[in-house]
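Thread: quick sanity check before group meeting

JM: Hey all, I'm pulling together slides for Thursday and realized we never actually wrote out the predicted structure for the chain we discussed last week. Dropping the sequence here so it's in one place. If anyone has concerns about the input, flag it before I start.
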Amino acid sequence: MLNGHYLTGSRGSEIELSVNGSSVVCHRGDTLLAALLASGLRSFRRSIVSNEPRAPCCNTGVCFDCMVTVNGTSYIRACMIDAEPGMAVETGDKTDG
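JM (edit): ok, ran it. Output follows.
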């Protein structure tokens, strides 16, 4: 059941997805947020008040600062879904990562 999960001490197989048009390699079992952060992405969107970059802070689905578009579907919390092979991910801030 947990084969390839971080709790077993082993990583899942490598998978590839697209983030803002660039290829990102991560591991099966990673959350999408973990994959994005591991790829170097730091800013996911811009503040509507100050236009400052925003990044996830809770990793539990509460802050909504990890919202991305996945395969054309908007408002997906990256911390709440697993990375899947072939995903096309777009962030609201394409100036970082």
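AS: nice. The chain has a mean pLDDT of 87. DSSP finds one helix and seven strands in the chain.
JM: adding both to the slides.
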